[in-house]
Design goal:
Number of strands: 20
Number of helices: 2
Strand order of the largest sheet: 4-3-2-1-12-11-10-9-8-7
CATH topology of the largest domain: YmcC-like fold
Helix content: 10-25%
Strand content: over 45%
Number of domains: 2
CATH architecture of the largest domain: Beta Barrel
């Protein structure tokens, strides 16, 4: 009886040890496993209607969500056109240039355009340790692929001016999983987070192909300030379809503080006028006005300590697709 009991106990111990060992081995194996396939390291091929829903966060506009959508595939020119489902986001990009992934992107490397030149933000096929350079947000970047895990390539890039971007490209979803840009003061200028990736988008898609016409900061001044800018149209495509303006305003709350802005085109029309009292703010305001080729004049008043008016104007060619 005693011997049978001892044998039974030993068998039970062996069984438990085997089960525990199996659990331990399985846990270690899953933590160290990498499901990345060779295909996920390669350049993806997009089709019209491919879509990625992102949450965008910027200091100017806070948080918003919109879908980036493949609107066109031009094999002759070798480019995709990536539009966005929100016309307001397209206008914001036109005047702030905060989303470099709207517009033309090359078929041969998903390179984005900066000042008319394609920039290799991505490095296909993804290889850990790869280092390369590109220009974006007016900065020259040195990028490195830090890791590849479960189909995701993680990249960090730095500029000589102290800016940093970090982003993850999803090989399974064919585009960015996330993207963060911080400036030299460690202020986050852009964050993109992917919510869902799908095919066969149905709806309107927008792209504003733009060029800056004015970017001026007006600060406290005891008298009226005068300024001008010229609307000459696109260098090769003719007249702009519209002008997009952006305002960032803060008027001091103490003392006789105030602000005003009046814009006139060469025909005498006043497409944009504003007035602010003490303590007023207008952050991230945006809108459009007609493009009337020629000179525009501005009259600006800013009163009060630390008061300012920041005005940006861009000319834009408007593209819209119904998919």
């Amino acid at each position: 009886m005693g011997r049978r009991f001892e044998v039974t106990v030993m068998l039970l111990l062996l069984l438990c040890t085997s089960v525990l060992a199996g659990c331990t081995t399985g846990s270690l194996a899953s933590s160290e496993s990498d499901s990345t396939t060779e295909e996920q390291k390669l350049l993806p091929e997009w089709e019209v209607g491919n879509q990625w829903l992102y949450t965008f966060i910027t200091p100017q506009f806070g948080e918003d969500s919109a879908r980036l959508v493949v609107a066109e595939v031009d094999t002759e020119e070798g480019v995709y056109t990536l539009g966005i489902s929100s016309e307001r986001e397209a206008q914001r990009h036109a005047v702030i240039n905060h989303n470099p992934f709207i517009g033309r992107i090359t078929l041969d490397g998903l390179s984005v355009y900066e000042n008319g030149d394609p920039q290799p933000v991505f490095s296909f096929p993804w290889t850990v340790g790869d280092t390369w350079g590109f220009t974006l947000f007016g900065q020259d970047w040195t990028a490195t692929t830090d890791s590849i895990n479960n189909g995701n390539a993680r990249v960090t890039a730095t500029s000589a001016e102290g800016h940093e971007i970090s982003y993850t490209f999803s090989g399974s979803k064919g585009f960015l999983e996330n993207f963060v840009w911080r400036d030299a003061e460690d202020v986050r200028q852009l964050r993109m987070d992917l919510n869902v990736a799908r095919d066969s988008y149905s709806g309107d898609v927008y792209f504003y192909r733009a060029r800056d016409l004015l970017d001026s900061l007006y600060e406290e001044n005891d008298q009226e300030a005068y300024d001008t800018f010229l609307d000459e149209g696109h260098p090769s495509e003719g007249d702009w379809n519209t002008l997009v303006w952006y305002l960032d305003v803060e008027i001091a709350s103490n003392g006789p503080s105030s602000g005003s802005l009046s814009m006139k085109d060469h025909a005498g029309a006043s497409p944009l006028t504003r007035a602010w009292g003490a303590g007023a703010t207008e952050k991230g305001a945006i809108g459009t006005i007609p493009s009337n080729s020629g000179e525009y004049s501005l009259t600006v008043t800013v009163r009060g300590p630390e008061s300012f008016i920041h005005l940006k104007v861009a000319g834009a060619l408007v593209f819209q697709w119904e998919l």
